[in-house]
Amino acid sequence: MEPGNETGISGFLLLGFSEESELQSFTFGPFLSMYMITVLGNLLITLAVSSDSHLQTPMYFFLSNLSFVDICFTSITIPKTLVNIQMQSKVITYAGCITQLYVFVIFSGLDIYLLAVMAYDRFVAICHPPYYMVSMNHQLCGILLLVSWITSVLHSFLQTSMVLQLSFCTHMEIPHFFCELNQMIQLACSDTFLNNMVMYFTAMLLCGGPLPGIIYSYFKIVCSICGISSAQGKYKAFSTCASHLSVVSLFCTSLGVYLNSAASQSSHSSAIASVMYTLVTPMLNPFIYSLRNKEIKGALRRFFGMASTKGPVILGQKKCPGLQDSKPQSQNCASLITLQK
Question: Model-level pTM?
């Protein structure tokens, strides 16, 4: 039957990684395990930060929001995938697909904006520690978070509105495990030139804003660390941004793998590569931020009622938010503590 425009489409078929049901069933266990670890790990980070007074600093404020975003980012795609695998079904309604696309674009944008804001936070903490508490005040943190939300929502609204204007054919199989923007545009029967231009233009803006900001922040951080005379001071300064730098590197690697697969026009490779940034990266983030972070581990122990007798050593009743080490030695940190009083 010759395909034609369908004005009242009921839904799409999510083909996933393979049309073979045996292979689809094989992915259920790993997907469920990774999803549960992702939700549990990020939820613990969020609860630990919100319930511990020692972590009421800008860095952990943005970290808790990143964990919340990662939970939502993963939950908009993986549960539907798990249900389809378990029910031996590939159907998703048109309304469900549009909703999934809209929410997914919001949280994918928020992910990179929050990483950029956290890079700026580390830049101020390491390069300008005496002005950290003045610069990164509650008002500025709230504004940065609000701007990130507004920008992501507007971007998602634009992309979703453009998709709603498209006409789709009767044969609507999405070679992916969720309603991915590029795959939906390729399915359309109507002219998609404007959609492609908007998608590429907004992608350039998204990568042209946060990513250069992250690169510039870490360039200045590296220059500042190189200017520290003592090896101990260099280690302490680097330890404050090591976790975030690891997360940024993992995110950029995952995004690079996905963009490379998308450029090759291989839908199967794109579906596999998207697992990295939709599931693997959010799952690893809590481990990266908690394994070497004494404050997070201490907060988790206190959260579970297993507080250690050794608390963080403080100076002048104020911890230095620019350093994770319990005994700040640098003159910059002493200046910051003096400023806090």
Answer: 0.81
**Residue 204 to residue 234: CA distance in whole angstroms:** 35
CA nearest to 13, candidates 158, 172, 152 = 172
Rounded Cα–Cα distance for residues 153 and 101 (Å) = 12
* Tens digits of residue pLDDT in 12-21: 888 876 655 5
8 Å CB contact between 181 and 159: yes
Pairing outcome for strands 91-93 and 11-14: antiparallel
Q: Are strands 168-169 and 5-6 parallel, antiparallel or unpaired?
A: antiparallel
Q: What residues does 169 pair with on adjacent strands?
A: 5
Residue 322: both structure tokens together: 């620019």
Q: Provide φ and ψ at 106, rounded to 5°.
A: -60, -55
Q: What is the pLDDT of residue 21?
A: 58
